[in-house]
Structure formats: structure tokens, C-alpha cells
Amino acid sequence: MIKRVRNQFFIVSLLSMILITSAIVGAINYINYRNWDNNTDYILDLVSENNGLFPGTMMMRKERGISPETPFITRFFTVYANVFKDIVYIDLSRVAAIEEEKAKNYAIELLGTGVSKGVIGQYKYSVNPNPQGYTMVFLDIHQMQENNRQLLEISALVGISGLILISVLLWWLSGFIVKPAEETLRREKRFITEASHEIKTPLAIISASSDIIEMENGESEWTQSIRNQVMKLDSLTSELIDLSKIQEKNTRERNTSVDLSDITEKVLAEFEAPMEVRGLELKRNISENIKLRSSESDVKQLITILLDNAVKYSILNEIISVDLNQKRTPVLTVRNRSNTKDLEDITPWFERFYREDESRNSSQNGYGIGLSSAWEIASLNGWKIGGSVKEGIVTVTVVF
Fold this sequence. Notes:
Elements: H1 2-49, H2 70-73, E1 76-82, E2 87-91, H3 100-113, E3 117-120, E4 123-130, E5 133-140, H4 142-217, H5 221-246, E6 256-259, H6 260-270, H7 272-277, E7 281-286, E8 291-294, H8 296-313, E9 319-326, E10 330-337, H9 370-381, E11 384-390, E12 393-399
Parallel strand pairs: 7-9
Antiparallel strand pairs: 1-2, 1-5, 3-4, 4-5, 6-8, 9-10, 10-12, 11-12
């Protein structure tokens, strides 16, 4: 369980860091792109308003990234057309990367589309109508796009490198974080095991003393009561030991292929006699050849606990139904009729020592350990277990 908690902590922390890092990298590149887009739009508007040229004197706007050097480092060309959309002049004096014929084709294409702003090739353009016709300014953004791409690559590389370092650090720190819980769990297991064995010794003495009393004075209701309580406590100590051992299986033991259908049928066969004693009828619907990756002991113990609980708390002479079907994953459903009040969620039943005041009372053997063991088995295998009570029908479902 500690390993699972550590893995969950690591995964949740790492996913959080991935989301945060992605948001930071995305925000940096988005802000950079918006600034670049606004600056290029401003330059296009500035040149377009001056009939395709930079103004001789400019009101420098630092917030737009404009400086006295901007006219000398900005590459653009201008195409002039008359009102009939015929090209009359092409100014290529501020650009060297395009030929006149290609510039003309760009202009003709844009005049035909009627789009006033956009990107064509490696140029961002602005088409501006005027009384004489049209002025089309094409701003070379190749280097700017390359800079944006490099920023994206560098920021992504830095982000990935940071995540790798953070993941190593998180994994190292997670060991220290779960260590107190690991120590607590170890002590709990040790206490349960040692206490259970310590309890068994006086129970054996009490049982033997009861036998001696019966041999000398005969069986009485008092000796029978003593024997019943000894059996209950002995059962409790055994269940506590079993619960502490459930978590000791390693991952490899829980990663073998088992026949869920076959195991279910075998467990049902074991419960035929207890059901007959209580006058219970079994209805089964078990699909064949349903496979599962787990350990056979986990599957058998889980199904045994659920059936034992159904038999123990079912009304006499009623029906217990067991269904096993293959949906997206295998699903096991156990139903029985009980005096339990209606509940939408029976999750509290899976807590240790849980018992309702009426139907799940101490007149039945058991101390609320079985279902908590079922919950532990399901959790360790990554299965989902739950259920409800409706009109006296208790339904417990396991999604494998």
C-alpha cells in the first residue's frame, strides 16, 4: 500500500508540475506572439499610412518596439495599383529576397481575394485603398517567425529539462514523505500480528477450561456461551491477521493470468452447503472464459468474502444471485435480500468494524473485518467495489 501511495503522490505531483510548466511556457510564447503580432501590425499601418514608406520623422512609441533603427532593419516591399487593380509600380528597394514577378503575382492574388490583411508566403501584408487605387505593403516576417520558433523550442526544452529534474527530485522526496506512514503501517501490522497471537493463548486456555467444566458438570448454557464467544474472538484474530497479510503480496504475484469464471464457480460450490442450511436458493449467471490479471488467492478471497457476507445477512429462505459478465472489463454482482434499510451507497460497510444497529448486529458471527478486507483487496488491485440497498435488496458490485 505504501508503494501505491508513493506512486500516487509522485504521479499527482508530476502531473501538477507538467500543467504548471505547460501553462508558463504557453503563456510566455503567447505573450511573445501577441507582442510580435501587434508590432508588425503597427509597422504595417505606419508604412501604409505614409504611402508605402517610413515617415521622415516619427513619434517613437517604445511600447510598440519602435526605435530610430527600425526603418533600417525592417524589410518590406510595396506594390501600387490603380483603381482598375492594374499594377503600376513595385518598390523592391528595401528587400532582396523576392523577385519582381513574384511580388506582382502576390499583389494580383490579393487584389482578387479582396482580403485586406493576412500572411502570404513569408510576408505579412496590408492592402489599403486610396483615391489613386491601392497601396499594398508586404512586411518580411521570416526572421521574426524564426525567432518565435526558436523561443518556443528553447522554452519547451527548458521546461522538459526542468520537469525531468523535478521528477527525480519528487521521487527522492516522496520516499521521505511516505516514510512516517510506512513506519506506522509496519508497527500496525506488527501490533496486529503479535496481539492476535497473544490473544490466542488465553483463548485456548479458556476453551480448555470450558471443556474441563463440561466433563465434570456437563454442558450448560454458560459453557456453550463461553465456547461461542471464544470462537468469535478466535475468528476475529484470524481475520485481523489475514487483513494485515493482504498488503504483503508484491506486484508480480498480482500480475498473473487467472480464470475468473472458473474461480467464481469453485467458490459458489463451496457455499452450496451453508446456503442449504439457511434455506437459500442460489441463482447464477456466470459467463465462461473470463480472464483477469491478478492473483488467484486475491480473487478467491474477495468472492468468498462477498458470498459469506450475503449468506450471513440474507433473510432465510430467500434468493442469492451472482452474476459475472464481461463488459468493458469483468463485472461481478452479488445480490441478496436483507432487513437493511435502503442506502444509495454502502461504502461505510467497507470500513473496519462497521456494523448497523439492527440487521447487521452481533447476533451474527463477524466483526466487520471481512468487507474491509474485500475493499483492501480491490484497492490493491485497482478494482472498484461498491453497491447499494433498494427495497431490501443488497447489491454489491466489483468492477475488475
